[in-house]
Fold each of these.
Amino acid sequence: MFHLRLVPDNTRIPFMRGRYAGIILSIVLSVASLGLFFYPGLNYGIDFAGGIVIEARTPEATDFGKMRSTLHNLNMGSVALQEFGSANDVLIRLERQPGDDAAQQRAADRVRATLAQEFPGTQVRRVEAVGASVSGELFRSGMLALGLAMVAMLVYIWFRFEWQFGAGAVVTLLLDVTKTIGFYVLFDLQFNLTAIAAILTIMGYSINDKVVVYDRMRENLRIYKKMPLRELIDLSINETLNRTLGTSLATLLSIIPLAIFGGEALQEFGIVLIFGIFLATSSSIFIAAPILLFLGENRLRRGAPEAAAPGGQPQQAP
């Protein structure tokens, strides 16, 4: 039976030769992402910044110029219009209005009435008005979810592997999350509850990828007792490379249509996931593995010394 192999079975790429470059580049990108977080900052969506979002469908192709002018005449601040789905579908975003949550609802009702008057036959399909107190609570809850997920993954890795594996996985996750935040800022993507879901998904994918590689490293640690840790890590990465690339490719093929045809609600989610797959796959090789090498040298060897050539059977050392 034919099996698709993305790389030959006997591949021996010396990944650890680039360990310093990989970690330094990752740290630089993470620090730059933190800088972008403070300036210019995230583009908070309605969920976290508060405001009004209205989804409407016009009977004919939307006249964006007329609609924008009409809504601007309401003097409710900046108005953003975006086409999604068909030419008849429009997403209207208004900045948060002065006052309490009731003021946001009154503004939404005013827009709804204006659309009905100026664009007869328009259907308002969705209206969301999020106030300051609600948006602040949602933001805190989202950050708490990220923090708890990070702690849960640390505990899981710590109990399943030695502490060096857990430290390497969590440090890599932190670097992955900061770079994802930088991605949101750099491309001016909306940071909302969907963004939290995207980051949690990336974290789960990333930790799963690292567990697969770590399992092979732990297995090889028992087999090749005298092999230098650097060579053993390279061997383990190469042995799991087909699985890593195959899983990443299959996941990409399922997400790309989402990013292209998912519409306004899911398009950014899909784009971030595509970035996250590349990020998680590369960080497993060039970040998590080098950190394990630095922390585990002379600490991960236990038991009676044995020697075995790669692909052979262990032999009792003299």
Note: The beta strands are 43-44, 51-57, 79-83, 89-94, 123-130, 190-191, 306-307, 315-316.
Amino acid sequence: MSHQVLRQHAEIAYEAELAALAAQDDRPRPPQWNLSPWAVVDYLLGTRLPDGTEISPKYIGDRRIMEIAVATLATDRSLLLLGVPGTAKSWVSEHLAAAISGDSTLLVQGTAGTGEEAMRYNWNYALLLAKGPTEEALVPSPMFNAMKTGKLCRVEELTRIPSEVQDTLITMLSEKTLPIPELSSEIQGVEGFNVIATANSRDRGVNELSSALQRRFNVVVLPLPSSIEAEIEIVSSRVASMSKALALPAEPPALEEIRRVVTVFRELRSGATEDGKSKVKSPSGTLSTAEAISVVTSGLSLAGHFGDGKLTALDLAAGMIGAIVKDPTQDPVVFKEYLETVVKEREGWKDLYRACKDRI
């Protein structure tokens, strides 16, 4: 029995869009790029091609930010996407790799336990003991393969990686070379090779990048959505995509329910109501767009499996409280005050007020 994967890689999920763009892309392409820089930005932001093909937006925001990111990858500098949690850093990284290299799978996931071998190479120890260090015994890393094939390598959560491991990147990024001293050889990066790293701006002070490594990156900051309408559009689009992939047996959420979740998150993280008339206290969590997507998707699952299929305030309340109340001491007080002073007084929000108040 064959089963569909839960989430396809971007180059598979959007294969038709990428092919349509490539077929009509007559602009100059850097060596080994599948698309021109202009077409890559069109893929990310969405457009309608001359033949009528619709390219769906993957990133909703300032076009100039994406142009700077793509232009960086066409130079010898690497790209560092920086931002608070939930600003689509990993999402943009994946789609950049898919559009440029046709392969988003060359990925190093940064953690406190990431070692040098994740950046460079490892060894098949059975072969190493039997034959000593040979090319056959060498196990290449994603970075190794990206250099050898001229593709983009993604490094997630760069500042989570120990500083001494981060610095193994310096030679690869400046000299485009990966030394293999055990074999008295090296791998030289070929045309098309570059690195896209992501970092959480709230992780400052965890493992700061050395000045030498910082110089190898061009930093592009991905901001939170500038307007409520932009954030609602992002949440609506991603929820629709995830609901389809998960086959949730619920009706598409009413736009007003999404608007309420986004409004609550924006007000609590900014410390003021949307109209600017009232100040509110902010909880300890980030309340990102990604968390808003999760709240609505979880609500749809509740509505579909345990309700009548229609998303209600009751379905949203549990996920909303889970996202807002991270600190069990301070956050309940902050959220209760917000419920009493803002949500309770807002016309048409009594159901959300009751649903949250009864569960906090």
Note: The first strand starts at residue 47 and ends at 48.
Amino acid sequence: MRALILLGLVGFVAQLVDGSLGMAYGVTSSTLLLAIGTNAAAASATVHLAEIGTTLASGISHWRFGNVDWKVVAKIGIPGAVGAFAGATFLSSLSTEIAAPVMSIILLTLGAYILVRFTAFGLPRGNLGKPLRRRFLAPLGLLAGFVDATGGGGWGPVGTPAILASGRLAPRKVIGSIDASEFLVAIAASIGFFVGIGSERIDFAWVAVLLLGGVIAAPIAAWLVRHIPPRILGSAVGGMIILTNVRTVLRSDWIDASGGVQTVVYLAIAVIWAAAIAYSVREYRRDKASESVEAVEQELHNRAGEEEQASA
């Protein structure tokens, strides 16, 4: 019962982050399942089955708040489903000894990307309003879907920053569209896992509690996306994912690091993680202060213009 409650809380927090940031539900949930010894393919299958419900709830919530561009959903979601099915069948064919560290390395890489991307650069906002072409979104969806299924997560970490980096779609629309299109990816990945490993290795009670936690969090996250600082959240989530998956890699047969080496690595990551969060908080406050000054200057400029017109 304690494990189910914990999984429910993880599903809630993971969806709260995912719906606010456009990524990290699968990465966060899969990281926990791997940490407690779940088979890599079964962990990814469990998460993707839960995501069928959470992504549907999240997509509807984002749509109701006006955060979804359906043209983007169609252009990236269908190729993403193809990539997810291929990734699921590929992961299912790997042995447990190989799959666990491989999956952790993928998650570790995604965590590092999230940490660096949001800490160093925040959210780009140039080129807003320019169209997103199919020749950009289709290959992106194919790659993101494959990574998502093989890594237990990755649709958001690959897709969201790439579209944000283009600067052609408002951040809330990017997050809403990625979350809505992930519904197709979750269905395709789940079918792929059923084909590859069947259903006997999947704990449907775990699927249910992850789903319940995510569904409860989905509408809250869709509202928070307009208010929460993505830069700070990205730094916090990225560091957590790195720290957790480094543990699996260091303990694998590939490295088999000693206890002392593991401790040193953990401490180094913790220091870097704390510094990244502190930097993100500082930059966020600086950006807000700069925006406030610009707003005041613009208001004064507008008032001066109105006074000149009145005197004329």
Note: The first helix runs from residue 2 to 21.
